[in-house]
């Protein structure tokens, strides 16, 4: 009995021109969705923030939507591309657009700094200008990833633009859904359930800069330790 031919697991298999530096950079940009998934997993595990969990659920739902659209439209990839699978819409473009726009919406419209009354340390927080610059940086990064799909001939311009449109549309819809869940009290109700308590799910990132809050606690401990040594 002859051995079955080996298949290629193409999740991270990228074709690029090794003699073209831009093509090489685009190959690295193609890994951004996988890297963002690792970022999601790390943040969810380390912070247990409901806002990050919501964003990840939206991100995965957006991926399912892309899977369905590709099999509904059934448009082939560019002829120069040797890969397999449908190309309309671009999953990379849809993924990064959802992420960058969701992050921007959170930074500009949902994140509201609230000073922590439990500490006497004066600290800085992200201003509206800084949050705007972070949003622009995120959108720029998404644009580079989307453009790289055309440069590597994995997608046509139309496929990338439709992917961007699908990701942006779903990001706006999902932000509206999570806003309604908050205003209707469902988020607060969910955080009081035993499941949320067992997994220690919380909702601090809307009002706190988690890095700054951790830094405050560290400085308070250093200050207390210094007093004990005197």
Count of helical segments?
9
**N-C termini distance:** 81 Å
Content-based structural category: mainly alpha
Proportion in β-strands: under 5%
> What proportion of the residues is helical, as a percent range?
55-70%
Tell me how many strands there are. 0
Radius of gyration: 22 Å
Q: Tell me the overall shape.
A: globular
Low-pLDDT runs = 117-123
Mean pLDDT: 84
Walk me through the structure.
It is a single chain. α1 (21-29) crosses α5, α3 packs antiparallel against α4 and α4 runs antiparallel to α5 (128-151). The radius of gyration is 22 Å and the shape is globular. The protein is mainly α and 230 residues long. The chain is 66% helix and 0% strand. The chain has one domain (21-116, 125-229). It catalyses: a di-trans,poly-cis-dolichyl diphosphate + H2O = a di-trans,poly-cis-dolichyl phosphate + phosphate + H(+).
Detail the topology: elements first, then pairings:
Layout: H1 21-29, H2 32-47, H3 50-73, H4 91-110, H5 128-151, H6 157-183, H7 186-191, H8 194-198, H9 210-229
Helix pairs in contact: 1-5, 2-3, 3-4, 3-6, 4-5, 4-6, 5-6
Give a summary of the structure in a few sentences.
This protein has nine helices and no strands.
Notable features of this structure?
single chain; 230 residues; mainly alpha
């Amino acid at each position: 009995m002859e051995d079955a031919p080996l298949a290629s697991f193409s999740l991270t298999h990228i074709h690029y021109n090794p003699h073209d530096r831009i093509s090489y950079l685009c190959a690295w940009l193609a890994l951004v969705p996988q890297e963002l998934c690792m970022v999601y997993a790390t943040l969810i595990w380390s912070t247990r923030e409901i806002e990050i969990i919501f964003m990840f659920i939206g991100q995965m739902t957006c991926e399912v939507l892309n899977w369905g659209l590709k099999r509904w439209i059934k448009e082939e990839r560019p002829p120069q591309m040797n890969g397999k699978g449908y190309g309309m819409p671009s999953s990379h473009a849809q993924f990064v657009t959802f992420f960058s726009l969701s992050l921007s919406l959170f930074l500009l419209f949902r994140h509201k700094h609230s000073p922590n009354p439990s500490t006497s340390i004066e600290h800085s927080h992200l201003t509206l200008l800084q949050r705007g610059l972070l949003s622009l940086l995120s959108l720029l990064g998404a644009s580079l990833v989307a453009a790289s799909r055309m440069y590597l001939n994995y997608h046509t311009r139309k496929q990338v633009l439709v992917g961007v449109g699908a990701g942006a549309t779903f990001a706006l819809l999902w932000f509206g859904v999570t806003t309604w869940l908050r205003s209707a009290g469902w988020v607060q109700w969910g955080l009081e359930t035993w499941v949320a308590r067992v997994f220690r799910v919380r909702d601090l990132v809307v009002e706190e800069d988690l890095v700054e809050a951790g830094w405050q606690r560290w400085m308070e401990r250093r200050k207390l330790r210094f007093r004990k040594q005197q």
